[in-house]
Amino acid sequence: MHPLIDCLNLAGRLDAVQLCDIRWALADPNHGQLTYEDGHIPGAVFVDLDTDLSAPPGPGRHPLPTVDSFVKTLGRLGITPEDEVVVYDDVGGAIAARMWWMLRSLGHDRSRLLDGGYQTWTSMGLPVEFGSNTPEAAEYVTSSTFDGVVTHHRLSGRAIVDARASERYTGETEPVDPKAGHIPGAVNKPASGNLDADGRFLDAELLRARYSDVDTNPVMSCGSGVTACHNALAMVVAGHEMPDVYIGSFSEWSHLDKPVVMGNNP
Prior knowledge:
Elements: E1 4-5, H1 7-11, E2 18-21, H2 31-37, E3 45-46, H3 49-52, H4 67-76, E4 85-88, H5 97-105, E5 111-114, H6 117-123, E6 149-150, E7 159-162, H7 166-170, E8 187-188, H8 204-210, E9 218-221, H9 227-237, E10 244-246, H10 249-255
Parallel strand pairs: 1-5, 2-3, 2-4, 4-5, 6-10, 7-8, 7-9, 9-10
């Protein structure tokens, strides 16, 4: 299944998918829930990045939950292994891609991200609803484990792709982590570069060109293992196999006091 779905396609299939609203803001832990209640795509349930898609911080800011914890969350959201799941946010998929990647990593291939997100949906005059939806609980049964997860112990010799903004990669600024700079050897491909001026993903040909200089078998990284998944999705759109992800990313790396590099060079 293609990793993206456009708004018009989704509008005609709302009854056929499980919709997950994953809006979030670093500076305000209540932002996602409040904006969801103020308006969301009909039928969507709210999914919290910090509590539903992450374990408690330490040393990285958004570690993976256990598979058992995640499948309990999926069941609470009314999602089964047979469902088609569509995830969205309001920042070009930068946050929602985390759930897309987690589902795909677990073997749930019937998962897609809404291209353009909530802002495109509303700009097209498509319907919204208010308040909260409480889904009927389901049972999500799987024997799978998260695939494609790389720990900091296994980065040596791997091609690392850093999805953070360039000023964080170079070390010009670091708003949240204890060190500035990047993991030695990492190249910078900001996740924002996957999108066009309207906030939709570039077409496959342009994404292939964007990642043409990335070595085979790369590892996606970022600040806390969230926007790294956006780059992973972009590579799948470009026709690559799903790349591995270093979920701990720079937040874990810097909290472990590992060496960093400043400037534009890997």
